Amino acid sequence: MLCSEWGQRVRDPLWHPFKIQRCGDKIKEVVDEEDAKLKNLSEEWGLRRRREERIPVLWNFEHGRKATLKEGIVAHMKHQINNLKRKRT
């Protein structure tokens, strides 16, 4: 029931639980801690948001470590080439 209710809220284009913050010359979007719907969720279900920011990381599973930018570009190019080959056949 909770997932269904929040699924509807997340799909609502009018609800935007974020605010823009300036940090020097950088602008970033952060969760609005004062948003009424988020506060209600936290109070009702006792949920706490993690304070850390999630930064996507490209992973090299073959070597069990973070991938370098060069490895990521090469992997992307291989994927694109394979897609082109499939389209031709």
TrEMBL record:
Q: What is this protein called?
A: Factor of DNA methylation 1-5/IDN2 domain-containing protein
Q: Which organism is it from?
A: Brassica cretica (Mustard)
Extract the Pfam families matched here.
XH
Instruction: Note the superkingdom of the native organism.
Output: Eukaryota
Factor of DNA methylation 1-5/IDN2 domain segment(s)? 1-46, 53-87
